Amino acid sequence: MADLVSGNNAHVFGLARPQASGTSALHQAPPRNTAFRDLPPPTGSAPFRLDLKDVVAPAVYDAIVRTQKVVFHLNGDMGGIQYAVPQELVAKGMEDDFQADASQAPAFLYVTGDCVYFNGQISEYYKQFYQPYEFYLAPVFAVPGNHDGENLPEDQTLDGFVRNFCAPQPVKMPESGDSHRTAMVQPNVYWTLLTPQVNIVGLYSNVPAGGEIRTPQKEWLASELATLPRDRPLLLALHHPIYSADDHHSGSTYMKDLVAAASADAGRHPDAILAGHVHNYQRLTRANADGGKTLFLVTGAGGYHNLHQIMKVGGQRLIPPAVFHDDSGDAVTLENYSDDHHGFLRVEISDSILMGKYYEVPRPQEPFSKGSHLLDYFRFDFKQRAYLPNTLS
Fold this sequence. Notes:
By secondary structure, this protein is of the alpha/beta class. The protein has a single domain, classed as Metallo-dependent phosphatases (Purple Acid Phosphatase, chain A, domain 2), CATH 3.60.21.10. It is built from eight helices and 20 strands. The strands form four sheets. It has a nine-stranded mixed beta sheet, with helices on one face. A seven-stranded mixed beta sheet has the order 5-4-3-17-18-19-20. It is globular and about 50 Å long.
């Protein structure tokens, strides 16, 4: 295979798709083709936690406490660098969701990386972030992706991300243009969001292929897993997914091993793992040795124009649920996916139950009045570590 993708005299032509070797894998350890970037200093104090009540309006926070339910949007790989329409359609779909479900409006949007393509430039933040979300009514939180950190030679890594997501105060940045949105005040590029119903630990998996996390972030992850309250679910968000059934990136063995090691040190595994990087939507479930399941969500169809297809097996398109086995022999099921539309996930967490609704938005060539289409609906019980019956009428 190497002879087909590279030639003599150091010419490099392309990469083999993950399934082209004849075996289909949900994760791999790709060769390192980009150097690790040292992290910028934190803008807040350890252990780098931000409480939702310090960001949203008191009425929003009180509603979460009163109803014992938090609602938020989840997405990734947002920037419309070459063709902005897909990103604008996703933004409009999320805006409409504030009115579509009157039970409770989303409290925030959480982005699983690659906020600004291709190199996280400050100059691109208006076009790729502030302008598309001008009418989004809630705060936007994020972890960085490889494109946010793989900056141009004249820039410091994550300059744009730190300015606009890790500001010391919620000030209006010059790059926000005529948007009224102020910069977010996350305390670090890896950090934890505290809410009354769920805690979300966010990692920065850096820029090498498959991601790379070093000291002190590794130790911080184990500490957060060990010390955060165990009476509420803990979600882990990072850019490079552990599992992915796509034909472009695949999941990352590096991230799988990292999370496994941190979980062993802490004596606690995340209840669900959220990721982006792969430009589609996937819901996967791993069957664990103790009989429970772990939920994995890939939400990378947030606006970047090139979507990534799900792998074909035997030349045939996968029909979910499709069961794979990872290198440890664990069964991993691709429960559902969308690889031909952009979209967003609406998450509701109440009483340790996660309800997810994934919506596809219209393709750019379709009538925009078509609106969002519900593709996937599920309920997952973190206490039972199992799906609940589908009750959508």
